[in-house]
Amino acid sequence: MSTDKTFLSVLPDRIVAKHHSRQTEEAYVHWVRQYVRCHGRRHPREMGTIQVHDFLTHLARDEQVNASAQNQALAARVFRTGRCW
């Protein structure tokens, strides 16, 4: 049996280790999951500034997400989780 964990399975533990709240954990996992899905399930470390810009534009234009939620999505994307991100 493999002990390799997926990026999204270790993300919550990394967020908790940084002493963020449960609500922050849930929000960050949500936004990272949306970001990954938006880009064909590519790993976040394979993507850069262009994909972040495209995702935020998608949120604003297509999903009509407000600026506060866009900022939260960006914060989730730039959250550093060591070697996984």
What does this molecule look like?
With 85 residues, this protein is an all-alpha fold. It has a single domain (7-84), classed as Orthogonal Bundle (DNA polymerase, domain 1). The chain is 62% helix and 0% strand. It has helices at residues 7-17, 22-38, 49-61, 67-78. The chain is globular and about 35 Å long.
Brief synopsis:
This protein is 62% helix and 0% strand. With 85 residues, the protein is mainly α.
Please tell me the total number of domains: 1
Low-confidence stretches: 81-85
Please describe the biggest sheet, giving its number of strands, its sense, and whether it closes into a barrel.
none
What's the average pLDDT?
Answer: 87
Fourth CATH level, the homologous superfamily: Tyrosine recombinase, N-terminal domain
* Helical content band: 55-70%
Shape: globular
Order of helices and strands: HHHH
Please tell me the CATH architecture by its name. Orthogonal Bundle
**How many DSSP helices?**
4
CATH structural class:
Mainly Alpha
Radius of gyration: 13 Å
| CATH fold-level label | DNA polymerase, domain 1
Find the count of extended strands (DSSP E, 2+ residues): 0
Strand content: under 5%
Distance between the termini: 24 Å
Judged by helices, strands and strand pairing, the structural class is mainly alpha
